[in-house]
Amino acid sequence: MAMSKYVAFLRGINVGGNKKVPMEDLRKTFESLGFTNVKTLLNTGNVVFEGEKTNAETVEQELEKHFGFPISVIIRTIYDIKSLVDSNPFDGIEVTEQTRLYITFLKEKNKSKLKIPYESPELDFKILKVTEGEVISVLTLFENGQSGKGMDILEKEFGKNVTTRNWNTVVKSLNV
User: Which of 28, 35, 89, 141 could form a disulfide with 136 if both were Cys (CB 3.0 to 4.6 A apart)?
Assistant: First the structure.
């Protein structure tokens, strides 16, 4: 079987001192599954690797066995990530110091009935587009640097079986 390149996005690790997963241990765990050229990106659970066809459930089982708690994993091919980046989903968005560009990866097909494009009542959170596998959103920090309820809206509409990454992280995953 041919080797393909993938990106795994892990949900909820190393946030606020909870569910600590050292990146070196994460890399070694992926290697123990037979994956090669395993590299981690940042400390937030982004793993770029090569291997034969894989599925998130197998990776999740091994991670839980190794780290002792469940870790949700969403896997995309590098081709999927490149297509997303090439689509330039934030074209036309004015970026300031308060602007955050996000991609939320969906583990299951979108079942939300939210009318897109969506803008929160506080005008600080916009969902620009929803595909079968991703939600493209923009968060604008308030003047005090705090964020509103954008992530809450995502979980309410798309469930907890999602994980969100800053656009810069998604772009960087192509060059790891």
Answer: 89
CA dihedral 168, 169, 170, 175 (to 10 degrees): 100
pLDDT tens, position by position, 70-127: 999 999 999 999 999 999 999 999 999 999 999 999 998 888 899 999 999 999 999 9
Q: Whole-prediction pTM value?
A: 0.93
